[in-house]
Amino acid sequence: MQKKYLLIYEEISKQIQEGHYPPKTILPSENDFADMYQTSRETIRKALNLLAQNGFIQKIRGKGSLVLDLKRHQFPISGLISFKELAENMGGKAKTTVEEFTLEMAGRDIARELNIDDDEKVWKVKRVRHIDEERVILDKDFLVERHVPGLSREICENSIFEYIEKKLEKKISFAKKEFTVEEPSPQDRKLLDMEGFHAIVIVKNYIYFDDATLFQYTESRHRPDKFRFVDFARRMDTRSI
Fold first, then answer.
1. What Å distances lie between residue 152 and 73, 155, 224, CA to CA?
2. Could you report the per-residue pLDDT of 126-156, keeping only the tens digit for each?
3. What fold does the segment set 4-67 form as a domain?
4. CA distance 137 to 121
5. CA 125/CA 119 separation, integer angstroms
6. Using CA atoms, how far apart are residues 224 and 236, in angstroms rounded to an integer?
7. Chain center to CA of 113
8. pTM: predicted TM-score of the whole model, two decimal places
9. In the chain, what are the domain boundaries?
């Protein structure tokens, strides 16, 4: 016989998919569900944990279980897509605001990330991405000025990738990405709508031209409820290893 928490998980997940519990609503409490299903809170907790693991809900401290939008925007892990391209796919529900824009010496930490000298000039750009009128991504971009000359605040509000490919006629080829999950920083909480969220997904991007020149390092900080990071993986033939 199937365990009770699995049956409860399947029933609640079906209700979420059918719209009985719409996105951005809070599910009934563990006590309410326990009464509803005539079971223990521990059984309900197991079902809710499984719902969270499979992307149906986000547990928010002090509030409960937030129902997530199952049509969350997908970021391909192995792909390289600009925010403007993502916004176009969302039908104009997104915009970018530039919080900081300067040209200055890289400094030791950024120079190390970009593999350049400490005194080389880099564009330092801080951008907030808005989706559905919520501030959900903080991008910290660092671009080597000699590789990307003529950058402006207006270009950063539109699309840096588009400027590089169409105006500078350079080919962006590939990126190395690193993913971590951390506690939000004070700056995250200041610039993003983080009320109730206690984790942030950080994607570090090292972006290269087709001649393998590293020209951009970006730290992209995502609120966890708006995105699914997806990839396609193929099993290798281990017989040849």
1. 28, 5, 30
2. 999 998 788 989 999 999 999 999 999 999 9
3. Arc Repressor Mutant, subunit A (1.10.10)
4. 26
5. 18
6. 31
7. 21
8. 0.68
9. 4-67, 73-230
